[in-house]
Every structure is written in structure tokens, then in C-alpha cells.
Amino acid sequence: MSQTPRTDGRRADELRPLRLEPGIAPHATGSVLCCFGKTQVICAVTIEKKVPGWMMQQKVAGGWITAEYSLLPYSTHDRKQRDIAKGKLDGRTVEIQRLIGRALRAVTDLSKLPGMTLWIDCDVLQADGGTRTASITGAYVAARLAVHKLMTAGELAENPLVDTVAAISAGIWQDQPILDLDYPEDRDASVDANIVVTGSGRFVELQVAGEESTYDHAQLGQIIALGTLGAGKLAEAQKACLAAHAV
Amino acid sequence: MSQTPRTDGRRADELRPLRLEPGIAPHATGSVLCCFGKTQVICAVTIEKKVPGWMMQQKVAGGWITAEYSLLPYSTHDRKQRDIAKGKLDGRTVEIQRLIGRALRAVTDLSKLPGMTLWIDCDVLQADGGTRTASITGAYVAARLAVHKLMTAGELAENPLVDTVAAISAGIWQDQPILDLDYPEDRDASVDANIVVTGSGRFVELQVAGEESTYDHAQLGQIIALGTLGAGKLAEAQKACLAAHAV
Amino acid sequence: MSQTPRTDGRRADELRPLRLEPGIAPHATGSVLCCFGKTQVICAVTIEKKVPGWMMQQKVAGGWITAEYSLLPYSTHDRKQRDIAKGKLDGRTVEIQRLIGRALRAVTDLSKLPGMTLWIDCDVLQADGGTRTASITGAYVAARLAVHKLMTAGELAENPLVDTVAAISAGIWQDQPILDLDYPEDRDASVDANIVVTGSGRFVELQVAGEESTYDHAQLGQIIALGTLGAGKLAEAQKACLAAHAV
Amino acid sequence: MSQTPRTDGRRADELRPLRLEPGIAPHATGSVLCCFGKTQVICAVTIEKKVPGWMMQQKVAGGWITAEYSLLPYSTHDRKQRDIAKGKLDGRTVEIQRLIGRALRAVTDLSKLPGMTLWIDCDVLQADGGTRTASITGAYVAARLAVHKLMTAGELAENPLVDTVAAISAGIWQDQPILDLDYPEDRDASVDANIVVTGSGRFVELQVAGEESTYDHAQLGQIIALGTLGAGKLAEAQKACLAAHAV
Amino acid sequence: MSQTPRTDGRRADELRPLRLEPGIAPHATGSVLCCFGKTQVICAVTIEKKVPGWMMQQKVAGGWITAEYSLLPYSTHDRKQRDIAKGKLDGRTVEIQRLIGRALRAVTDLSKLPGMTLWIDCDVLQADGGTRTASITGAYVAARLAVHKLMTAGELAENPLVDTVAAISAGIWQDQPILDLDYPEDRDASVDANIVVTGSGRFVELQVAGEESTYDHAQLGQIIALGTLGAGKLAEAQKACLAAHAV
Amino acid sequence: MSQTPRTDGRRADELRPLRLEPGIAPHATGSVLCCFGKTQVICAVTIEKKVPGWMMQQKVAGGWITAEYSLLPYSTHDRKQRDIAKGKLDGRTVEIQRLIGRALRAVTDLSKLPGMTLWIDCDVLQADGGTRTASITGAYVAARLAVHKLMTAGELAENPLVDTVAAISAGIWQDQPILDLDYPEDRDASVDANIVVTGSGRFVELQVAGEESTYDHAQLGQIIALGTLGAGKLAEAQKACLAAHAV
To answer: pTM for the whole thing?
Structure first.
């Protein structure tokens, strides 16, 4: 059966060009500009030498990782109103920042972050689909750079990151399974999935949502296979980027 | 291999006792008290004869479905502060109400709700794990009852619900896959999944999250199989309840 | 002089059917569903083992009682927007929850609640007039049940409740004084009163408001007489309910 | 039985010195500084040439009266934080401004305020008990002055105020009924009442609250008698003040 | 070259009539009603015996001065909505209260206010241009009165105010430099300046803003000269007022 | 007299290295990364095809320019909490964004922006003093690029920018006047000024504030001279940058 070609001519299982540029935010402990095609996200990690109130109350040892995500107003085709102008975070932002936090915590031994909170900030400079997956993929690199800096400075004894983590989208678009959807594909997809996978190939999170639509077992299998493939390629790129910066 | 028995003695693939009691909120257009074991949720559907602002602006025809979810303060062992007392919805609440709304819209032909918003309110009277899945399962029944009432009253020409929908949790607990986790199981699970399935067996949404943990392909397969099984049983119970009320 | 008959055929001094169903919210320390005719309120009492900040600062001994009140969205004929969706409590809600708190504190020896806050939550499941009076009447029963449970568990040495308390509405409707107004009567009344009385017949609070109208001494006397009568009947029903549950 | 003398030596049925100084806020349509002893309230009435949203939606003819009340930060012995600094109105403020609005509307024929909202602002310059009663008493005078100015300017055809209205406090203090409580008396009273009465001697509102205490029929009668007496004196003073300003 | 006469006939370098009436808010530690022509501001100083959180955290010795500014709703020709009704301070208010605070701190030796916060509240009773300059000018007098009272009471050992401070506006209106603009002049000015000067003739703050317009060096010089002149006259009036009250 | 050398060895009248990199935010209509030494600000201009509510109500013709400013959380040495996390803009942010808006409007003929709002967003990527002056300087370039794009696309008939505008700081530090303060200089300065000047050398705004300190006429003159000099150099750099991009 002949298939509709993708908007930018990619194969169904092809990622967009990936860029990882460390050092975008010099005051952060670790930072990277992570680009999936035209999607550009500033991922920055800063350290706060205290833990959340609930950890202190419950006397939980170790540290914490928390994430914040924001679309900069000029990242979208129509200007996106700032959160503070609306007075609250929208539901989509809340979901994304919770997902980023869980993804990073899943590959971290929190007991090795004594008394610290690792803040992960993801600010989208340009949005063209996949901002949450680019955020997670970049956040890992920024976190690894921050850990390296803290270990070099003697502020951390050991690397708390026990594995790498990356995320990628997949979906059903024009009745075909595709990987790494750009904005027009994402808008028109009937099924939209986000897959978070570790460097060793284990799942951290799988979210597969029918967009006012449903899907069957066969489609689910195709989506999982594509996502696993894509996440593997991202893991290689993360390692190459870090190696190039001697981490 | 011998396994740890479940807290309440259930088999791994066994649901908690299900109760669906229509009519709990007489002023609503449709309502049901949905209980999964000790978890009790008031699900109520009310109708507003207008559509959201963005639909009017974009001149989208048809109607809309939106959901709100709340833990009543006395639903948890320690009193849960009201949302208004904190001044904002917490992230978990936002995620759940977005999930309920998407689940119901996935089985609805919105073009058959002309100029209407169907509000789904899910208020948890007692929380013991699975409040979001009980909410979705009950919300479908409340929505079907509301549609029946509107059709009887001549306010709707056709049934906009094109399928039934139910949701169930599954997870990895004590290294074994189990279905329909109660609160202590949910708290201790290493993987936590929510599966939303239609009466015809298609997926609406699948969310499988490692709880500061990860999982492999085999575990993912087991979770999907359990969830599919559980959702099938819930679909039968929904139909039986509606049939008993002549819907 | 012939009088307009009441909407539901009651005599001027007749209460609506009263129901008090303990145990509606099993996780609460004490709870009751209190119904005045079609008005249904979930009254639940939970315990917090600390006192408000101002008591700690001022080193006031003993405990505190505070109340929250909410109309569930599906309790009214037109869906009532949640407080959190509006971002603040409306004036009516604030007045009612302050009244409930004062009513219960008036019959409580706060020195016998050492270091505790008794939270009274009143959530209206169905609103048909008299929600504040049903809330107070039910709140007393829920509080007494909670106290019983705490004493049985050895967490309270003595009963801090020194009397019972109940509340009832009265008003001038169609130029006649009537007791326990339902919603259509309340909407059309020219004078609207709420009377809070102890089991021993003393007043806790009397609020008699002309609804863009005024009233004379004779009418005030009639309202007070009706309210006193109604509150006496409620006190008997509270005692019977508690006796039936061996409290 | 000998009685404790009042803090300032007044008889039980004696009002504090009353001052009504028109013109305190020259940009307002009508204004007065109303002083009950050391309690000083700026009462100002301004006109907005539109009605609230709900009146427009429900196509209610005529106009509206609404009130806002605030303790200026330096009105109390310890600085009172501004409402905006706390982010919300406290419950006491909400109750008071609702009471002021109802009191004025009870003596107004709203149909004679076509398309207008009369804003009543009461800002307390010095608080020494009775700020709500001084607010209502002054608000009437400010409103009458505003009406006079509007009629003179031809912006109102008729006087919409059908009667005068004033308010006074009474209570049980040291086991004796007293009138017009100052702050120390108010703080120590076991029963606290506010009585709103028209110039023709009809009640607008009666609120009699036990302060973590209760009261009997005899005490209620004494309170009502004192309040009626005091309100009569205030009505005379209002008339004298207006007459002195040729209104 | 002939010039347009000013709206009220003043010379270009003439101040409006100044009034300083101490004691307007008797519960404040120091207060004054400060009038620049029709502009009337209540300036009140109260003392709080603690310092801001950041001073305690950073262990900064001494005390603090902070200011709040508000337009009373009836101070303007069209009623000004209260800040709390809008839910936030507008930008203009924020700028003004920060300016008042900086002005007073510039003439205060904060080390001589041990453990105290001096709250300066400026509430505008009537607004006719120059509310911020009248606020600063009055705030100094209120602060000096408060200091006097505290020293008399033995609560302050030394006068922390090391100089006097006053503020005045100047601007370019109808192409001419003028001093102390009233509201119509302020509205039409092309350049609007506020000048804060100490009694010894040193600048505290200079803000010269083109109102969607620009200005040259010569105009800047004229504005500075006028402002310096006006501030000198205000300093004399402040001293005379205080001397008349034996301070 | 020998003087303390500046932290980075600059002469008193020397600017930090200036960088203007157009195109940082590709979805914006015009954007530039503006760097004053280590201070880096993303300046982006987007267009909204409507005007503010007050312009529509008052039927003001033409368009509007508005600015928003934010410190990204990782721009400062200690992580800066997001505005939305605090729930409101702090006073400093409000002042800065109002200043940016006024600066741009002063060089714009708003009548040549028919029915449009030009949004100027300034997000600080790295903060090292002078973020508001870098914001204004970059905002002009971004606005000019946006205008160029709109004119090329035929969406604007004429260039509404009638002049260029730039801003620079100056101050008194270690008793000497210096230009373009970096963060350590700004923190320690006794006088802090911001000067906004057009390309033709006219002032738009001058703000000279004693930082809990005061200054005399001579110092004011030195500050104005330095600022005028610095702004002239910035104007040349703006023109060169635009010329290099054929604007």
C-alpha cells in the first residue's frame, strides 16, 4: 500500500536532525540547547542546597529533582501569553513538567544528592512538535554536565545518575505509524505517544493517547517499536555529546 | 515461584467488588456512585447550553465534554485541604481531570451535542486507590444516563456516545503484575499503569509509569494483558447496570 | 384571613422530613448525611492534631473548631461553578462557613480539645433551601460521633460538647410567617431568618434579614417563636439518631 | 444589683458622641465622615453609569447599590495589613460589606436608579468598635447627599431613597445589656448584636451572636429594646445633619 | 514670547497652596494630611517591632522602612476600583510605593531603628496631580512625628532621620517648563519629572520621562532648576509645621 | 587623585563589549540576542493583530507597543524563582517592563501601526548588571527587524519608528562616576542611573537614584555626560548591526 509522504520527506522511522549544544546558559551549573529539527529548548540545571518541605518534614534522606517547563512567548507562531499573565499554569504545562521530573528521577539515586535539589528548567525557544521529548533528552545532558561540575568541585562524592534517559514521540498519522512528529504531524495525528527510555533500553514511561480517537493492539505494538528505536539513537547522541565535552 | 499474597487476598487478575448506584445526585442530569472496593466516587453529569469560548471563536460546530475531579477533604486518611484553600489545583488533579475528559470525548461524536457542554464532575467520597479509573468508569455510566434523559426529553436527537469506555489500573507490585491496585499496593508499586479501553476492546489511553523505577518489555506486555482483561469486565458491569435502569 | 398554601402543602409551622444517616464518609472520624426534605448535605468531621497559627502564637490552650462549606457543582439546578474555578470563595459561602464554626464552638468547651483542630466539612449534594441550617444540624451529629470515636480510642478524655445545637430557617412569605423554607419559598420570602438554638433552648445566633424589604416587631416575634419550635424538634431528632447508634 | 460601670462612664443605654461631617471626600458624589466616639469612618458614594453583569444578563430594570468596606492600615492599634497584601478579603470584611449593601438597598426603590450603580465605600480611619454600624449610618447620609446632587444636576428624576436607615450595636457585657459597644466592650462581650432600623422604626436586619456563648429570650428582648432606642436617636441626628446642609 | 497661562493662573515656578495637618489618623504613631492644592493624601506611619524576612535571614542589623500607596476609590473623578477587586497592584502603584520607600530610606540611618519596621501608608483622599510628591513630602512629616513620639516614649534612643526630604513635580507643558503640575497639566505634559531632594539640597532621586515624547539638554536643565527651587520651599514648610508642633 | 580601578579594568567611560545577534528566536517577527559583556538578553518582537481593550473603548486610532521582561531562572547566580511560582510580578520587574515600553513608544508613531500591538519580550539568559539597558537597546533592534519584515510582507505601509533608541547605565561607584556598571559595580554603587537616549541625541528618560544615599549637582552632571556618551556609541552599533542585515 502506498503511503502519504511525511511533511519534510523523512522515512517513518527517521528522527529529525538532533543538535545538543552545551553551555547555552553560562550561570547554570549545567546547560544545553537541545534541538529536534526546528524545535529548540534551553535545558538548564541549577542546584539549590535544600530539599522540599515535605522531605524535611518526613525526614527523607538524600535529595530531590524537580522540573519547570515553559513556552517562551515567541516560541509559537502566535504569541503565547506568559503563565504569569494568565495567573496560573495551564494543564498541559503541569503535565509536561511532572513528566520531566519523573523521567530524571527514574535514573537517579536520590540518596547520592545529599540535601540538594536539582532544578531542571526547560524553556522552549522555538516550538515545532516534540518539546517535551526534547526537554527530557536535553535535561539529561544538562544534568550530567551539572553532576560533572559538582564532582569536579568536590561538592558531590559520586555520580547519582545511574543510567541515561531520553524521550521521543511516535504516533499514528495518516493511518501509518511514524516517529518524532513535527508540529503539523502532531496536530493531525490520531494517536500520539511519548516514550521515555533509559540508555540500557528499559522503559521509564509510556503514554499513548488517542486524540479523540482509539487504537488497537497492532498499532500499539508499532508505536512501541518505533519509540524504542528512536530512543536508542538519542541515547547514542547524548553519549557522543558528553564524550566530546570530556564527561 | 511462590508470590506474596495481595493485601486483601485477591488473585493477581481479580478486580475489587464493583458497585454502580445511579441517582446519587438527583439534581444532576445523570449521576452514579461508582465504587471499586473501598474507593467511592460521585460521578455526575450536568449540561450547560453553551460551548467553550475557543469553540465559539473558531466556529467549531457541535459540543464539548469537560471534566472536573476533586478529592473531598474527608476522603483520605489525613484530611485533604480543599483546592480553594491552597489557591490552585495540584498537578495530580489537573492530570486526572484532563484524562477523564479525553476518555469520554474519545467515545463521543461531539457533532451530536449541538451547542452543549457536558460537564463531568467526579468527587471522591472515599479514596483507596484507583480513583481516576473509578471516575472514568462511573463517568461513562453517568453520561449515558444523562444522554438517555436528554433524548427522552427531546433535547438530544441522537445518542452521541458511539461506544462505552472504562478504565482500570495495573502495575508491578512485589515483582508481580497485578490488576486494580488498592491504596497500599499503589503506594508500594514499582510500576503503575492506567488503561482506558472501549467496550469494543480498543485502547483510548495507556499510561505506564515507573515510580522512580523502570520496566522491561515483558512487564509491559503483562500489564497490558491484565488491563485489557479488567476493562472487559468493567464494560460488562456498565452494560448490566444500564440495562437494569432500562437504558 | 385565608392564606396561600405552601408549595408542598406543609403547615406554616411544619418541618420538612428530616433524615440523619451516619457513616456517609467512612474515612472521616464522624459523618452524617443530613437531609431537610430534598436538601442533602454531607457533614463530616476530621481531626487535625495541631491548632491554628494564631493560637500557637498567642499561646491559647485547648483546641479549635473550624468549618468549610461548599455547594457541589451538581447540587443546584444550574451547574454551580467550583470555588477553585472562580479563584475565590463567594461572600455567601464565607458567611455560611463562619456561621457553622461559631455555632459549634458555642456548645464546645475548647479547653477539652487539647492541641486539636476539629474540621467540619459540609458539602451540599442537593440544594433546596436551608443548606446552612441542615449543615449546622448535621455538623453537630457528625461532631458527636467523632467525639465518641475519639473517646473510645482514648484520644479524648472527656466530651468537649456541653450541649447539642441545631439550626432552622423561618421567614415571612406571602405575608405569613413560615418555618423551614424550601428553595422556592426562600427565593420569594420578604424576610429570611436563621435561628441557631441549643438543646437546652438557649440562642446561639439569630439572623433576621429583610430581603430588600423590612419587618416589624410583631413579625420578628412570630419568626422567633417558629424558629424556637423547629429547633426543639431538631434537637429531639438529633438525640434519637445518636441513641440509635449507641452514642 | 450593682453593675460594673462602662469603660467610658456611659449609661447602659447611652450612645457615644456622634459626628457627621459632610464633604470629607470632595471628588465623591456624596461623602461624610461618620464618627461614633473614637470610631471614624469615611463614607463616600460614587456613581457608575452601568449595572452589574447579572442585571444586564437577566434584563432586570433599574439600578443597583453595592458596598465596599476596608480598615485603613493605621486604623487599628496594631497595623492592619492591606487586603491586597493578603491577596483576599477576610471573612469579616466580606460579611460587613454585604450587610452595608443590603441595608441601603432595603430603603431604596432600585427602579428609580435607571442604569446606575451606586458604590458605597466605607474606609475606617480609626477603629474603636462599631465600625459596621457607623458605616451604615454614614452611608445613608452620603447616599442622600449624592442623590441630592444628582437630582439638582437633573441626572435623577426622583429620590430613590424611600426611608432613612441607621445601625447600632448592642450586647451583653459583664452580664448587663449595653448599647453602642466600644472596642474593649466588644472584645469582652458574651453576646454581640447589630441592629439595622429604618427611620420609620421598621427592622432591616437583626444579627445577635453569642461569642462562644449563648443567650436567653429575656436577654434577646433587652438587646432589641436597646437597639431600637439607639437607632431612633441616630435617625434624628441623620435628619438634623442633612437639614443643616439644606437636603 | 508670550506663553499659555496655567490652568489656575499660577506662575511657572509657583507651587500650589500647601497644607500639612498633623494628627489625621490618631491610631498611627505619626500622621499628617498633606495637601498640594486639591490633591489630598493621608500619610500615616506605624511601627512594627520586627524586620522583613530577608533582613533576619541575612542577619542585617538595624531596621527597615517600607511604603504602601493607594488611591482611595473616591479620590478620582471616575471611581477607581480597589486593588483587591482587581486582584493585584497596578504597575503605577508599585512604582510609586517603591519610590516613597527609597526616598525615606535615603535620609534615614537604618541602624538607629533597631529591630523595627517603619510602615509608611499613603492613601489618596483626592487626586489632582502630584500624588506621589505629596505622599513623599507628607511621609517625611509623619515619620518625624512618629520618631518624636517614640523618642518621648523612650522606645528610640536617637533620631534616625539624618535630613529632611521632600518631592515635587516639574515638566514641559505647552512648550514651557512649569513646577508642581495639577492633573490637567500632568495629562497634557510632554515631559513629566519627579524630583526628590533633601533639606540640605542634595538629590535623592530624579526621574524625567518623555510622555511618548523626548526632550533636550536645555529642557532638562530647566526642569532640574525648577524642581530644586520647589523642593526648597517644601523643606521650609515641613520645618515650620514641625516647629509649630514642638518637634 | 588616584582612583580605584574597575573590576574588569575598564576606563570609567568605557562600555562593555557589545554583541547584537539577530535571529535568536526564529518564530518571532524580529529578534536579537543583545549582550553587554556577560549580560545576555533575548529580545523578541511579535505582532498581535488587535489593540488593548482601553484603546478600543476610547476609540483611539493606531496601534500599541507593550513590553514584558523576565529573568530566566538560571540567569542569576542563585536560581531565580519564576514569576508564576511566586504568583505575581515583583516590583522591579514591573518597573523595568514599563520602562522598556515607554522607551520604544517614545520613538514610534503609533498611528502607523494600525490595529496592531507590538509585543516586546525581553528574557534575560545571563544577568550581570544592566539588564534593563541591554533590553531596551536590543528591543529597538528587534523592533526594527520586525518592522522591516512587516514592510517587506506588505503588512505595514510605512516605518513607524521615527528614531532609534538605546539605553545605558551610569553611576557613582567608589566616589567616581562610571559608565555601564556590571553586577558587582551596580551592587556597590551609591548612585545608580539609567539613561534612555534617541539616535538624534534627545532624552527619552533619565532616572538617577541614590541607593540609600544622595548626590549633588556636580555628580548629576557627570552622570548625564557619561550616559550621553555611552548611548551615542550604542546608537552607532545598532545602525551597524541593522546595516549588516540589510535593514
So the answer is: 0.92
